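Weekly sync, protein design subgroup
Attendees: M.S., D.O., the rotation student, P.L. (late)

Item 1: inverse folding check
M.S. brought a backbone from last month's batch and wanted to see whether the design step gives back something sensible before we order anything. D.O. pointed out we never logged the input encoding, so this time it goes straight into the notes. Structure tokens as presented (62 positions):
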């Protein structure tokens, strides 16, 4: 199981990302999704508890 959330980017963030990626601002989405393994899924998949915080959530740009 994964947990998800979304973040709405500000104009400044969009500009900063576009500059860093060297693309036009209109190619950057206004919202990005973030997906992370839930603690329950980590436990079911035998992920050691002390390692769970070592895995960063994945950023999925849609």
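Designed sequence read out in the meeting:
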């Amino acid at each position: 199981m994964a947990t998800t959330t979304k973040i709405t980017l500000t104009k400044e963030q969009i500009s900063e990302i576009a500059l860093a990626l060297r693309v036009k601002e209109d190619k950057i989405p206004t919202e990005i999704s973030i997906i992370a393994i839930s603690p329950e899924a980590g436990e079911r998949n035998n992920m050691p508890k002390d390692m769970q915080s070592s895995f960063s959530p994945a950023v999925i740009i849609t």
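Discussion: The two ends are 20 Å apart (CA to CA). The chain has a mean pLDDT of 80.
Action: P.L. to compare against the previous round before Friday.
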